[in-house]
Amino acid sequence: MPDGDSIAGYRLTGRSRMGEVGTWIDAVAPDGSPGAALRVDPASMSTPGARERVVAAVIADRRLTQSGLTGLMPIADLVAAGGEVWLLTARPATPSLAELMNGRPGSPPPDAGSAATVLVETAQTLLAVHAAGLSHGAVHAGTVVIGQDGTALLAERGLALALRGQQPSYDRDLTAWASLARGLAAGWAAGDPRAAQLFDRAAAAATTHGLSAARDALLNGRDLLPAGFTTRERLVQTLQWWSAGDVPTQEPQQASGSYGHPYPTGASGSSGVPDDGEVVTLLYQPGTGESPNPGGAGVAGSAAVGYAGTTPAGTAATAGAGGPAGNSEMRFGPGVPADTTAAQIWRAGREQVTVPAKERLRRPPPSRRRRGGVLGSAVIFALIIVAAIFLWLQRGQPISVTAVDVKTPKAKGCDITVNVIGVITTNGQSGQVTYEWLPSGERSVRHTDPVQAGESTHQVSLKWDIGGRGTKKLTARLRVLSPLTPGARLEDKASFTYKC
């Protein structure tokens, strides 16, 4: 594809790759900042209701990013041109995690710490998405974009579900994240057996106990990762090596089982970019309050917003690049603090949680302000987010159980009472834990105990009266009944010998 073509003011470069629902092309926004354009596969858009569902998914994404979630690809606009739909973003769509995992000859591969950071960040983002009643629907290495500072961004959230007309599925996201963890264990942690085992444990935790448990497994296993990994230095080195090379444009091939579609050539103009008709934003809908240019001046305000493909900087197509999503971008390099989001998460441990998007979405949208007040607004917004995180930490998320352990008791003498000790490990939140003791040859004993916030371990006991003559081997089994995900099983046992 030759350079120089544009869509809604975004100048398309020549670097493209296959996405889940279409073709990504790196682009330059009208204000000169890097971005990307996703040409959604026209065939998938032709199904009844597909366009409306895609618009709804994009609007939901923009509201999440405007309310403080930084782990999603920031969207600038969604436009229609010449019968095609294009998604414009405020960040480049390359490299994807898949491209980095494939590697380039001579490039230094990221270490296990880089993989752990990507997994923690994507888990945090998915937790916030799920809290908003949404899901991603197509989590894999191709829909994870790695920013220049090493941050992991989820791209194409909800688009595959929208095109297929499917409902959100948390289980599909959990399974996909677990598959991603296992892929990184086999790739970036291949030379580090302990880290690879850590990723496998996190993957198992995701499918059995959820993403919170998977994230906690990674955080609790940080000692198994390379020293200093939270700075992302190794990952940024790989990014710099990847970017320094002359990565040629490749015509994407149709991906099996996906909505990917090769970038058209010769269809209408030299590159297939529509060269007739107007470009219309799809995001502004009367009554929704949604605008293609939140918080700034632009063309929003009429029910039908049309503008030519050479939109100047400052219009709806460009404002997203410098809007709230752009302001939350972090950078890596000399003179820039290395205290990244990932470093904060690792340092805070499992007490670091994501503010549920349901609560953030209740806040009224920010009013339009003059350009001179943008910096002050950003500071106030950041303080609000910090306060919300603090309040959420105080209130806590629902309690979850991550492990159970039974200690072998001592049994000496005749006609004795043996005290069997069990330890239930939780995520440190307040709530109730229901469990049962199953002593061999005896009736089960069920209890429900309250657990206070800040206690990551809860000790329980079984007083077992044993009498008679002879020698016998006895087993005490401790089984957790709730809170557990449906179908999950969590128990432990201990055996001892009674002699009299």
TrEMBL record:
Bilayer-crossing regions: 372-393
Alphabetical UniProt keywords: Membrane, Transmembrane, Transmembrane helix
Positions with biased composition (Basic residues): 360-371
Residue ranges, annotated region (Disordered): 246-275, 349-371
InterPro entries hit by this protein: Kinase-like_dom_sf (IPR011009)
Name of the featured protein: Ig-like domain-containing protein
Organism: Sphaerisporangium flaviroseum
